[in-house]
Amino acid sequence: MVEDQPLTGVGAGNFVVAFPRYAQGRVVRRQLIAHNSYVSVAAETGLIGLALFLLMHGLALRNTYHAVRFARASKDWELEPMAVASEVCLLVLMMERWREAERR
Questions:
Q1: What distance in Å separates the CA atoms of residue 45 and residue 53, rounded to the nearest whole number?
Q2: Nearest C-alpha neighbor of 22 from the set 44, 38, 37, 7
Q3: Which among 10, 27, 70, 88 is placed 20 to 30 Å from 33, CA to CA?
């Protein structure tokens, strides 16, 4: 799908609708999903949408990193664990989005 429509994709939420047109070989139709969230976003919204999705992740990571640095610099011992926890949670979510197709 990304190869056919690299900039616009097939449209948000249209992966399942467009899938039969792009399927090759024997396909089991019980779970029509992309490999992971990143591939799904690229297929549905194109490379522009994927770039914005990755930019959103990058900005969120940057903000959590700055929160950790601010907490340490201001010696705010209540804020620091929460900032570190949110940074770790964000990293785990990003990795799980990558690995989600392996569980299916």
A1: 10
A2: 44
A3: 88
